[in-house]
Structure formats: C-alpha cells, structure tokens
Amino acid sequence: MFEVAKRFSVANRRSKGEFIRQYCRDNGLRSMLFIGAGGGTGPIARIVEQAAAAEATTVVSADLIVHRDSPWTFVQCDGTALPFPDQSFDLVLSNAVIEHVGDEDLQRRFVAEHLRVGRHFAVTTPNKWFPVETHTQAVLRHWSPRWRAAHADRFTRLLSKRQLKALLPAGSRIRADLLRVTWTGVGRSEGSRA
Predict the structure, then answer these.
(1) Of 90, 111, 92, 88, residue with least CA distance to 157
(2) Sign of the four-CA dihedral 138, 161, 112, 33
(3) CA dist 23 to 27, 94, 159, Å?
(4) What are the Cα distances from residue 172, in Å, to 26, 98, 188?
(5) Residue-wise pLDDT tens digits, 151-165
(6) 119, 124, 123: which is closest to 29 by C-alpha?
(7) Residue 10 contacts by C-beta under 8 Å, 6 or more apart in sequence?
C-alpha cells in the first residue's frame, strides 16, 4: 500500500511541477524564490521546485528551518515577512506550505508577501475535500473537527477551493477540481508590470 501511495504522490507532484513549469515558460519567468522548499533528497523531495527551476537562471530558497542541503542559495526567514525588496523575483512559489502557516490572517500575510516580492506567484495546497489527507494519509477522518484537533501538529488549515480563491488576487488561475489531490493558484501580482 505504501508503494502505491508513494507512486501517486510522485505523479501528483510531477503534474503540479509541469503545470508551474509551463506557466513559467509561457511568461518568461527566470528569477525565482521558493518558500518552504524543504530539505531532503528522497524521490519526492523538491519535485515541484526542480520543475520550475528548470526554467530559471536564478533561484533562492527560503524557509524558517535551515536546509544545508538546499541546491539553491538559501535564506532563513519567515514567509509572512520576507527580507527582499518589492518585485525582486519573477516568480514566488510555495508548494504545500500555506496550510502550515497558521490561521486565515497569517495565510493572507503569507500570500501578500508572495505578491509584494514577486511579479508572479504560484501557491499550491492540498485539496481539503480530497478523501485522503495528504499529510497523514488518513481516509475521510480528516473531515472531522475532532480528528483535526487531535492531529493539529501535522497541519494547520486545509483550504477549500473557495478559501484558496479568496486568498489570491482576482484574476488568478486556479487549477482545482474536486478529484485533484492538490490545488494550484498562479497569476500576476497586482503591482507587477511584467
């Protein structure tokens, strides 16, 4: 069962990565900031980020936790208060990070930093309504408030499509259908001229 879940996870990540890579290609995005790209070197580590990086000339990785094994320039920082000037990057990408940031106010601040620092953004998050919770592999139980409270250390706030859309700027392209494991929002930051 574990092998099936791992193959499914890899396929999902490759699909997200290719979607974001195509967005980068279509918009000529070359300088990138990856928020929460994480550590690790296993078969599922950084698949999405590596796909986007294939289009990049410059990549910076940022996280609260130091990742000495990052293949990119690394900056330790908080994704809700990034230490970069406005419009520093063509793309700011966070892959399955927003659900770990905290409550709705913190998620709004997190997205606001994407929009301030990047000319374009890509935000992915697990589908709140998918029958398998991606962090714990729980089937259906993650819809129970009591179960979520008992597993709060694994995730903070899973998002519905409506909630994700409300966090992103008007006109964002959201790849979200009910059967998709992960939802992805991409678009141009409001202050961008590019």
Answers:
(1) 111
(2) positive
(3) 6, 14, 22
(4) 15, 16, 7
(5) 766 556 888 899 999
(6) 119
(7) 43, 44, 47
Fold category of 2-188 in CATH:
Rossmann fold (3.40.50)
Question: Are the C-beta atoms of residues 66 and 97 closer than 8 Å to each other?
Answer: no
Distances (CA, A) of 140 to 21, 37, 89, 161: 32, 28, 39, 18
User: What residues does each domain of the chain span?
Assistant: 2-188
H helices of the chain, where? Answer: 2-27, 47-53, 104-117, 145-150, 161-167
The yes-or-no verdict on residue 61 having pLDDT over 70 is: yes
Please tell me the distance from the alpha carbon of residue 24 to that of residue 101, in angstroms, as a whole number: 25
Tokens representing 187?
Answer: 């678009």
pLDDT of residue 11: 81
